[in-house]
């Protein structure tokens, strides 16, 4: 009976907890944006005019198809992250082939997998489509020691051959031109070139040659095949090009063509790059090719009759590309406009200074089917288009051209430009931007949410109490009253305008009402639900995104950010201090040099601040944002360098004085994971530091994986928990507590373990340590209030487990007014419980609300792309094994080892967030509501209500009914009152 | 004297028999009642005449008797003991309503608590009522004690229902978060 009752109670509890969205709420409070990452390969599908597609393969191991009209995703196939899923090459012939260990063919219209082939082990070098008799049938894959040919239709292997002398010869290229032969090119560095010819039909080696080439070290990018099977190599040391016909039987050597004979000159120290195009794998490549002679110098050359002749010299020209449609091929050259500086540095600078205008010159070749002869590729058309790229976006990096035949048989083209900041821009011929995609957002590193500023009128009212008031005070009371009245009037006016707008909009159908968000109209809403998301991406591009609509409101590309840089974003001044603009500081640390730079900017507009950050001459180890403020209300940022000296920013006199006063109360800790050392420091008055504690966790046994303190903006409303007998168990709320997680170095499943240390960051006292034996990482940790939740892999039972630690002071508070780590004689009581979780997890975060009254949920990102909102009450070490009267009073759920995953707990319903890497939570103005942003490959924003919307009327609240009833009753009372009066009067007369 | 009266009687009878609505020529009113009600009385009582000097209202007896004094005393004790008498009834209601917090027990408790409080508020009026009694002070004290007991009972009921903030958990929401003495930060070496 008791069991039944607990079951019922449990069920009831679960029912009351579920808060899935209703169908009509889909997309109302949430949005998702899907990204693909930095483009490595791109192909335009242009077989039929109707179904145009853009096929991409990216560094995030994704094969995707975009709609060239809108830039939206048609389909996206996500492979494993990391090197395992790396796409080596993408070949396109009606089908897409992604390549790694695996050879895959994708159906380009819907993104379905046609077939998949596991390749022989060995490092992948090159792959090429092979065609015979004008049709493409095979794909050839060159590995370190083998070359294999696969059918394109089903992936089956036609033949595989081992390459001779593969230990000395580096085979690097494979080539076929439609004949029955397949050429494999290899090089013995600084010795000779090896050419092996295979028969496509049976894989037999038909010929094997070696040509002396002592200058050659690598084939890739140095050598290319042009025209009717002529190998052309460029050499920087001898400043010449070398030509070699591949198919000639007689042993001819390389024919040297000095660059000077072509009136060309190579930029100093630049390795020339050759670029050619083979429009159809069943045909030989074009006789025209590009030779890059410098970073901004390209030459278009033509090979005819065994003679090289320059067609055109492009200087400056950053990017060149070929595109083919039908029998016509265009060459596109992207060159910056107004280029005047010729030196290398000058080019870079001028490019960044001028408004990043590029002009695109395209040259059209026409090749008639029969014209394989010398003068086949003639320049027919030369058009220049001026395109405007985002001046803030960095240099263009890659250029993909899509050529198509217009109705009048002339060639039109569209261009896809990828810039350094991973933005891809799609342009149409008159230089119009069709769409842009900010692919940098596929790799968000860190983010913050900043309140939007008040509207002009609100700010006006606020301004009265701000700095302006000080000036006004001189005018006396009357002026103040006048000002107050005028600002109230403005407020009233704004309110009426707002009402009018509401009324006006209400008449229109919902679909027509567009809420255009621009940077000018940004204002805080009533409940502060709309915020500015400041996102920092790995490429060094910063974004300001409106949290309501997901629109990118500003972007700022930071140049000279190293790819492995570490970012730390801090909000120094919020929007609460009106006359002063909000201020964010981004600490960028270069991993290699260790030097750091500060980028100070306004998070609402993205503009760089006028405040000059301090120059940091020494490597910075950590930063610390103090709650101290200078007279301009910006929080003080302390930067600790490798000599443990502290730099303050801002470092005004006021700040330094405050720091001197406060110095003895400022502590910081540093964790050196490589040495397993945790050390605590105290600030001295002269801004130097002294070491006060040190904890060494021997790195031979275990390594520190994660250190987490509590979030600075976290509020805890309740200082204790009410027990069943109505006494209080006080929480141990140590703001200086750190949770340190270690993993054993020994990964054997019997000996591996996970350690959790709770260390006081001020005194270095170890409050608690727990060791989970036979457990392994990866470990995900959330540390908040008085609890730590971590998730690990139980190697013994082969399952994921959650463990929760909760700290309590006991039934008495030691000191209820102040908390000092230095004066805490008693250790807290620690309770722990573990649960089985049926899935592995990607990331974990706890919800956060304004005052901390609302109950907490854990937001768990699952590898499936779902985000689970798990009530913290399931992770409660006080859950009893047997339900008693008291535990029921306390609303404790009886302990069950399995943690359920309920689909209605998924806050993102079917909007999977692929490869979720982080979840950011921010409080809103409503206590019940917490804003959530999950980022990974996709970005998903929503709101969660852990205790339901107790402070908001329901969405379907019947205003009409309630107000009509209210008004009806009101009028009924009025009328009946009147009637009663009349009746009384009449009775008095009788 | 008798003859003319008899003749008169005759006349009256004869006239009534003839007209019915015709009024009498004259009448002599000897009752104490006012003249306006004459018509009504005539219609209800017919022609019955009260004797002269008769009044149908009793004349109040203004003299105080010993028995009345006892009665007042008794009445005052009734008032004073009223609250005490209610206590067993209240106890029964308390027992019946149970300790669950729902609308009926809450209403009961409110009534139980409100009545003594109301009585205590109008204590002066009650004292005035008891003024005539000789044991006024004793009765007053008994009345007070009775009401206090009633409210104590209500408080006890509140206590047993858990409505009184007597536990530390009831004051938990008012505990301010402790002030932080040290500022600490840091992390992994970047």
From TrEMBL, chain A:
Q: Gene3D superfamilies in the record, alphabetically?
A: YVTN repeat-like/Quinoprotein amine dehydrogenase
Report how it sits in the membrane: Single-pass type I membrane protein
| Keywords attached to this entry | Disulfide bond, Endoplasmic reticulum, Glycoprotein, Membrane, Signal, Transmembrane, Transmembrane helix
User: Does Transmembrane helix show up as a keyword for this record?
Assistant: yes
For this chain's UniProt record, which GO biological process terms are given?
A: protein folding in endoplasmic reticulum
Q: Where is the signal peptide?
A: 1-20
On the tree of life, the source organism's domain of life is Eukaryota
Q: Where is the ER membrane protein complex subunit 1 C-terminal domain?
A: 784-989
GO CC annotation, single: EMC complex
Q: Where is the EMC1 first beta-propeller domain?
A: 20-439
Q: Where in the cell is it found?
A: Endoplasmic reticulum membrane
Record carries keyword Cytoplasm: no
Q: How does it assemble?
A: Component of the ER membrane protein complex (EMC).
PANTHER family hit by this protein? ER MEMBRANE PROTEIN COMPLEX SUBUNIT 1
Q: What family is this protein classified in? A: Belongs to the EMC1 family.
Protein name (record)? ER membrane protein complex subunit 1
Tell me the gene name. Answer: EMC1
UniProtKB/TrEMBL annotation, chain B:
Which keywords does this Swiss-Prot/TrEMBL entry list?
Endoplasmic reticulum, Membrane, Transmembrane, Transmembrane helix
A cellular component term, taken from the record's GO annotations: endoplasmic reticulum membrane
Is-annotated flag, keyword Transport?
Answer: no
Question: Where does the source fall among the domains of life?
Answer: Eukaryota
Q: Where are the transmembrane segments?
A: 92-117, 137-156
Tell me the InterPro entries matching this sequence.
TMEM85/Emc4
Q: Name one Pfam family in it.
A: EMC4
Q: How does it sit in the membrane?
A: Multi-pass membrane protein
Would the keyword Endoplasmic reticulum turn up in this protein's UniProt record?
A: yes
The places in or outside the cell where this protein is found are:
Endoplasmic reticulum membrane
Quaternary arrangement and interactors, per the entry? Component of the ER membrane protein complex (EMC).
State the similarity comment. Answer: Belongs to the EMC4 family.
- PANTHER family, per this entry? ER MEMBRANE PROTEIN COMPLEX SUBUNIT 4 (PTHR19315)
Q: Tell me what this protein is called.
A: ER membrane protein complex subunit 4
